[in-house]
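Exam review. A common question shows you a sequence with its structure tokens and asks you to describe the fold in words. Practice with the pair below. Do the first one on your own.
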Amino acid sequence: MNGFLSRDRLIGLFCFAFAGYVWYEAGTFPTSDFDAVGPSLYPRFLATVIGLASLVIFLRPSKGASAKDKSPRWGAFLYVILVSAAYIALLMPLGFIPTTVLFLLAMVLYFEPSELKVRIRKAVVYAACFSVFLYLFFGKLLGVLLPAGILHGLLG
């Protein structure tokens, strides 16, 4: 597609429409007298982020794609699907933090183009810090029940 509606712009439009749908549907969630924030806050926050990102994708100037960019990367797609399936399978037995660390390590090491030694160092730090941050944010601050798994005694 070489016109105004390139592939990126169509994806941007689709994501913007999806964000609008999520925003609308989040407003239909039943509220509770016990929760001051309500169940629609987080979905609407995500819809806002998706909507803004889709606007950036839509409004940025399109660049001519090379022949390499036009062919889909099926290997990377299959890798993401398989690693995500492994994440789902291991989440309950291992727990949130160890499984998320392994998932992030697998993703960063596969998609980071730098030297392996540098990738491993950066990936371990990133995966551990981000996994603990996510656990503290969702598990402790927001009260989301996350599987403790093998760290059951430590996370009490």
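Now try the second one, then compare your answer with the model answer below.
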Amino acid sequence: MSAAAIAHGPRHPRRARVRRTLAAGLLLTTCGWLPAAPAEVTSIGDFPCTQWSARRGADDRVDAPQMWLAGFMTGLATGLRIDVLAITDAPAMFSWMDDFCREHPDELLSTGAGVLFNELVHRLPDTPPHLTAR
């Protein structure tokens, strides 16, 4: 590694942090220090997409499922320490979930939220938004 690279840090700090976190989790899991993650995680208060669509209605109102999604996404971002919410907002998330539930009416909101979170992670800029010149 060059002196310039060491002085300025990694080219993609977020990606590097995610890789380090995943590698550490894998290492701890394989060493037996952490239990292996279950295939599914129970989500309390989750809503099926059919309820999302029915409760949104034609006026795109904000109701309990939308607030649940906002809290769930905030929990994921906080727990994983990946600030995907810096590049979106509630109306954009709700619109995305409208489309997801239209295409997957038998799914749960937590499933859609996981897909959305992953999409947002892949759209993150290399430089955190709060450090971007205005």
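Model answer, second protein: Residues 38 and 87 are 30 Å apart (CA to CA). Residues 1-10, 24-38 have pLDDT under 50 and may be disordered. Full marks require stating both points clearly.
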